[in-house]
């Protein structure tokens, strides 16, 4: 029997259903809620209403009192999660981290210890090749069709109301902006949709038939940026990339900057991209854009993965599981504009097989069928032995 502590999960019932499955299997499950959105997803959880500065001591007491040997959470960089992970290591408890899938759709990431920049996946090409050669099967994806926007609206509405009503007076938003502020940003985007469609068409026409690079923006609240890059924010990274482009890119080269589809509209990216040969696209299809670009520049977005899959050169400025010699271009950015190097296609195939087999599970938290698949795949990993991605690669 194992003793689990669940912290925040993806919006919706997935974590609650997974906890119920573990309890039915004879394990002990505890859950902590930090605001009304968490309560909506898991009504019987324990409410933490204290200050965030007191959370490290609180979680240490909780893990010791309940003899927790397994920590389960979604994302490993939120401050409340970092404190719990540090405590779990003191107690020798296993840390199981779920996250959005590296390869989508139809999967979710599940790794022990950490994800993204904290992942145990190898960054050495030889190790990747040896590990991939020993993989017998890669689980197929399980996709759903139910939209998740409704879950997000309900989650963040209850989160905001719980703070205003002083039910959770000390809650801190890990995304930076408060839910109401973000919601107003999305409303503004919706009202400007027609104008943004025109801006998208103009940007794509501006690079049509011209040699150009693609820069997909990441969310400014993305912990990939905040924890796994030197720049620390998308705005800082964008300024550095535009400065390099202006100073070093060939005069006949253009740069297409694509806004993240889930951007809340609070930053005027179009104004920040106002520069010669730079075209800002508030919308558009990433895969269609990849069909015309000569290379991609990113900090550490997973948007680089479909680019690598197509054989498109990628320059990654931050720490990422795919920032591997032979996959991404190792030259300085100033040289990348002139001579972008394509990825090794065989190495990418091995990399993809390793990631899907060892760091992802099939399913989709947005629908009942997908959640059932995720739970079936996650249970053995949470309750049984752990398959280290490096163990069989030596």
* CATH class designation of the largest domain: Alpha Beta
Structural class: alpha/beta
Average pLDDT works out at 92
Strand numbers in spatial order across the main sheet:
3-2-1-4-5-6-12
CATH architecture of the largest domain: 3-Layer(aba) Sandwich
- Gyration radius from CA atoms, angstroms: 22 Å
Secondary-structure element string: EHEHEHEHEEHHHHEHHEHEHEHEHHEH
Main sheet specs? 7 strands, mixed
Helix content: 40-55%
CATH topology of the largest domain: Rossmann fold
Q: What is the percentage of strand-forming residues?
A: 5-15%
Task: Describe the structure in your own words.
- With 394 residues, the chain is α/β, with parallel strands linked by helices.
- The protein has two domains: 3-146 and 359-374, Rossmann fold; 195-345, Rossmann fold, CATH 3.40.50.
- Helices cover 42% and strands 14% of the residues.
- It has helices at residues 14-24, 36-41, 55-65, 79-91, 125-133, 149-164, 179-191, 193-207, 223-228, 234-248, 269-272, 286-290, 304-309, 333-336, 345-359, 368-383, and strands at 3-6, 28-33, 46-47, 70-74, 94-100, 107-112, 212-216, 254-258, 278-281, 295-298, 314-316, 360-362.
- The protein has a seven-stranded mixed sheet with strand order 3-2-1-4-5-6-12. It has a five-stranded parallel sheet with strand order 9-8-7-10-11, sandwiched between helices.
- α1 (14-24) crosses α16 (368-383), α3 (55-65) crosses α4 and α5 (125-133) packs across α15.
- The model has no long low-confidence stretch (mean pLDDT 92).
- InterPro entries: Capsule_polysaccharide_synth.
């Amino acid at each position: 029997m194992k003793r689990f502590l669940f912290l925040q999960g993806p919006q919706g019932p997935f974590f609650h259903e997974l906890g119920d499955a573990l309890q039915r299997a004879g394990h002990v499950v505890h859950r902590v809620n930090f605001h009304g959105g968490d309560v909506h997803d898991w009504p019987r959880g324990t409410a933490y209403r204290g200050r965030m500065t007191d959370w490290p001591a609180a979680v240490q007491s909780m893990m010791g009192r309940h003899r927790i040997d397994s920590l389960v959470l979604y994302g490993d960089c939120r401050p409340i999660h970092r404190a719990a992970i540090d405590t779990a290591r003191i107690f020798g408890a296993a840390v199981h981290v779920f996250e959005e899938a590296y390869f989508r759709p139809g999967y979710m990431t599940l790794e022990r210890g950490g994800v993204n920049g904290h992942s145990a996946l190898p960054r050495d090409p030889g190790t990747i090749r040896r590990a991939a050669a020993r993989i017998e099967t890669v689980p197929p994806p399980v996709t759903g069709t139910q939209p998740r926007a409704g879950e997000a609206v309900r989650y963040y509405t209850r989160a905001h109301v719980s703070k205003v009503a002083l039910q959770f007076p000390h809650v801190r938003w890990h995304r930076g902006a408060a839910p109401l502020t973000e919601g107003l940003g999305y409303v503004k985007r919706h009202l400007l949709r027609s104008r943004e469609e025109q801006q998208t068409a103009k940007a794509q026409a501006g690079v049509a038939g011209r040699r150009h690079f693609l820069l997909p923006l990441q969310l400014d609240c993305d912990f990939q940026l905040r924890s796994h890059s030197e720049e620390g924010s998308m705005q800082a990274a964008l300024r550095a990339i535009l400065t390099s482009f202006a100073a070093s890119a060939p005069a006949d080269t253009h740069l297409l900057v694509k806004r993240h589809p889930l951007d809340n509209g609070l930053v005027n990216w179009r104004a920040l991209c106002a520069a010669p040969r730079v075209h800002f696209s508030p919308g558009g299809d990433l895969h269609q854009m990849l069909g015309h670009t000569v290379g991609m520049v990113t900090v550490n977005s997973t948007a680089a993965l479909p680019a690598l899959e197509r054989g498109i050169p990628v320059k990654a400025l931050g720490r990422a599981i795919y920032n591997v010699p032979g996959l991404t271009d190792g030259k300085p950015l100033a040289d990348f504009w002139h001579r972008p190097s394509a990825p090794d296609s065989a190495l990418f195939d091995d990399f993809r097989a390793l990631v899907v087999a060892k760091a992802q599970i099939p399913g989709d938290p947005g629908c009942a069928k997908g959640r059932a698949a995720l739970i079936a795949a996650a249970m053995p990993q949470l309750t049984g032995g752990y398959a280290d991605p490096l163990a069989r690669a030596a």
